[in-house]
Amino acid sequence: MSEKVSEKDRASSIDEKHQFQGEPDGSSIVAGSEGVTEHELATLRHVADRLPYTAWLVVVVEFAERWTYYGTTNIYNNYINFRLPTGSINGSVPAINRGGNTVAGALGQGQQKAFAIRTFNSFWVYVTPWVGGIIADTLWGRYKTIMVFSIVCLLGHVILVASSTPAALENSNTALGLLVLSIVVMGLGAGAIKANVSPMIAEQYRGKLRKETLKSGEVVIKSPAVTIQSMYLWFYAAINLGSCGAISASFLARDHGYWVAYLVPTCIFVMVPIVLLIGRKNYVVTPPRGSILLETFRVIGFALGPRWSINPLKTVRSIKSPDFWDPAKPSYYGEGKVPAKMTWDDEFVGEVGRTINACSVFLFFPVFWLCYSQIDGNLGTVAAGMTLKGTPNDLIQNLNPISIIIMIPIFDRVIYPFLRSRKINFSPIKRIYAGFLVAGLAMVYASVLESYQNKLSPCRGGEFHNQPAACEVDGEHAATRLNVWIVSGPYILVGMSEIFASITSLEYAFTKAPKRMKSVVMAFAQFQTALSAALNFTLTAVNVETKFVWLFGAFAVSSWAVGTIFFFCFRRLDSREAELNAIGQGQREGFHGETADTTTGVHTNDGMQKV
């Protein structure tokens, strides 16, 4: 699940807090806390706080939105790829064939066109978060932006239902045109919502660092950082619980046709504006903070100006220098000498630097999302050539969200607390790296499975050489003797990789972004999926079943290689977690109005730190 605040484990807390102790004996009070001393912060166990009910309302919004998204997109592959089953007018499988290997279908456009349209959908829905992020940060705020674009998204769903009615399917070109239009409209709405809903949930929590005595008598630290980490784990669980709506979609398409399968998520989406209205008086709402993009580019321009040189090595060294941002600060020029175009203060320059730091971490994610994209359709095509025994081939991909739902409580309640108790610093950078490694392992599984499938398929030899695995032989839908559930491995492994990498990317986008730029940074993080889709689109020629073995294998190697490069580029950030989270939380834009970070008590000056 495409689509995901930092690990404040006890071990890293001890290391980081000692860097910033105000008193040698640790008796000083952590700034912004409710009487917690440095010594208590370093020695007591850190636990999550209770979440406000408004956070759970946002979870419900995300649950409904993701149900409708995956409840439609997860059946796109069959809808576009395969033709109408014999005797069907709506794409459903006739009752007499439902116990066999016949798959639902409608438009009959083939694997490559289905791949192209699905890839465009992925690209579009992860480009449009820029629109939602910019509008929220500069004009409307997050709440109004989500509300307005939920109506836009609902309109797109109505168009999708119209595209799949029996009347529309009489002309496949008409149906295809309406499908593309619905994808454009829904993608605009869903993308704008996506950029804002994940920052909005974390903003609902307003607690401070404090001590609390449990019923057992143990004194613990109620940590905002651990709370937000837990919050995002459960937020991601809601995403995947919602995506399980695709389970019903597969059966609805098989038994009742595609217009019914698309109508159900459309009705569920009506929950989104309703829930938003229910909590409108209680949400913690972040107001828009004015146009910042133009100023951001100007800050970068002022900083880069003096750094250029005909010697590329000198340019790189200058950009990496600790004083890189100084020429963009008004204080650099002295009183009366500040350039007229410099309409910001030193703190804003620090926020821009922090934003770029946060964004740089996400630049490696397109390769990760390439691996994830294979479970959207290509593995469904592989499953179509296996023994189904009445199981819709596009049902199997729901094992991905189901496995995530099962694993998240285990990670949140067992694995992560165990690591904290053993003082093992499983930091955000390490978790993301683990995600790349597991995603590569999933692709190895897929490649080996497809190789074996090719050897068994009647569509791979003789007169049927190089045919799709789901071809017809003597008028019957061909299938290998492999049971379709064997393909579940990659879906489960990709789910585990998402817990490590995708959820952590949501954490990182929230904690490392300045308050005025959280939606924009979140949009940039999600934009990596769009870049992945664009890269994937260039591979359309090799997205045919006869080349899946090499395609999956190449993605595995790429994920391992890029993940390793990522780790060596950013591993030094592990020791600066607390420092980086404190940057940009100054008096003007402070966290909960404090003058220092509520977890570490770190005071900063200009807020600039270079990676």
From TrEMBL:
Annotated stretches, region: Disordered: 1-31, 589-611
Chief site of localization: membrane
Transmembrane segments: 146-169, 175-197, 232-253, 259-279, 431-448, 491-510, 522-542, 548-570
Membrane topology: Multi-pass membrane protein
Assigned GO CC terms: membrane
Any single biological process term in GO: oligopeptide transport
Molecular function GO terms recorded: transmembrane transporter activity
This protein's UniProt keywords: Membrane, Transmembrane, Transmembrane helix
Ranges of Polar residues composition bias in the record: 596-611
Compositionally biased spans, kind Basic and acidic residues: 1-20
Cellular location(s): Membrane
Keyword Phosphoprotein among record annotations: no
Native species: Tricholomella constricta
PROSITE patterns attached to this UniProt entry: PTR2_1
Protein name: Uncharacterized protein
Membership in a protein family: Belongs to the major facilitator superfamily. Proton-dependent oligopeptide transporter (POT/PTR) (TC 2.A.17) family.
